[in-house]
């Protein structure tokens, strides 16, 4: 813990760790006393009669239930990624887009979405296409996020 510089470790009330998930909050608290960090246990958050969990958030996302997902997260869903070089097809059509590398993000259903993007502390509104590009034949089709920002280009 010294190398991490951690002063506290916060875990949920169902936390298990270590070999065969034998570690629990009581063990963490004991380790905290031994290694000089504070162990804090947080109660589960309940929404609609069920515990909020990352599994439940992913299920809502995959089902396209954005209202439930937003309630579970306590904020609107967002995707973050880096702009990568594309084939400049949007520019040729008069709509230059930023191609976003989703890396390993779990994406909601495919489609066209109203978006807000943040760059250098400035907010831009725009539209985004999430999915494969049906307009262009692509044998190696993969999930793409292409964003057109009003007033940016």
Automatic annotation (TrEMBL):
<keyword id="KW-0548">Nucleotidyltransferase</keyword>
<dbReference type="GO" id="GO:0006747">
    <property type="term" value="P:FAD biosynthetic process"/>
</dbReference>
<dbReference type="InterPro" id="IPR014729">
    <property type="entry name" value="Rossmann-like_a/b/a_fold"/>
</dbReference>
<dbReference type="Pfam" id="PF01687">
    <property type="entry name" value="Flavokinase"/>
</dbReference>
<keyword id="KW-0288">FMN</keyword>
<dbReference type="InterPro" id="IPR023468">
    <property type="entry name" value="Riboflavin_kinase"/>
</dbReference>
<dbReference type="InterPro" id="IPR015865">
    <property type="entry name" value="Riboflavin_kinase_bac/euk"/>
</dbReference>
<dbReference type="GO" id="GO:0008531">
    <property type="term" value="F:riboflavin kinase activity"/>
</dbReference>
<keyword id="KW-0274">FAD</keyword>
<keyword id="KW-0285">Flavoprotein</keyword>
<keyword id="KW-0067">ATP-binding</keyword>
<dbReference type="GO" id="GO:0009231">
    <property type="term" value="P:riboflavin biosynthetic process"/>
</dbReference>
<dbReference type="GO" id="GO:0003919">
    <property type="term" value="F:FMN adenylyltransferase activity"/>
</dbReference>
<keyword id="KW-0418">Kinase</keyword>
<dbReference type="GO" id="GO:0005524">
    <property type="term" value="F:ATP binding"/>
</dbReference>
<dbReference type="InterPro" id="IPR023465">
    <property type="entry name" value="Riboflavin_kinase_dom_sf"/>
</dbReference>
<keyword id="KW-0547">Nucleotide-binding</keyword>
<dbReference type="GO" id="GO:0009398">
    <property type="term" value="P:FMN biosynthetic process"/>
</dbReference>
<dbReference type="InterPro" id="IPR015864">
    <property type="entry name" value="FAD_synthase"/>
</dbReference>
<protein>
    <submittedName>
        <fullName>Riboflavin kinase</fullName>
    </submittedName>
</protein>
<comment type="pathway">
    <text>Cofactor biosynthesis; FAD biosynthesis; FAD from FMN: step 1/1.</text>
</comment>
<keyword id="KW-0808">Transferase</keyword>
<dbReference type="Pfam" id="PF06574">
    <property type="entry name" value="FAD_syn"/>
</dbReference>
<feature type="domain" description="Riboflavin kinase">
    <location>
        <begin position="72"/>
        <end position="153"/>
    </location>
</feature>
<comment type="similarity">
    <text>Belongs to the RibF family.</text>
</comment>
């Amino acid at each position: 813990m010294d190398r991490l510089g951690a002063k506290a470790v916060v875990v949920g009330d169902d936390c298990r760790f270590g070999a065969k998930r034998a570690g629990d909050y009581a063990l963490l608290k004991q380790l905290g006393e031994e290694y000089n960090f504070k162990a804090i246990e947080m109660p589960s958050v309940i929404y609609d009669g069920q515990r909020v969990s990352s599994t439940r958030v992913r299920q809502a996302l995959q089902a396209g239930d954005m209202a439930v997902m937003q309630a579970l997260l306590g904020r609107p869903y967002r995707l973050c990624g880096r702009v990568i070089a594309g084939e400049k097809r949007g520019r040729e059509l008069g709509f230059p887009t930023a191609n976003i590398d989703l890396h390993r993000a779990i994406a909601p259903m495919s489609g066209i979405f109203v978006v807000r993007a943040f760059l250098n502390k400035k907010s831009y509104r725009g539209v985004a296409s999430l999915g494969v590009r049906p307009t262009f034949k692509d044998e190696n089709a993969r999930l793409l996020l292409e964003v057109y920002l009003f007033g940016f280009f």
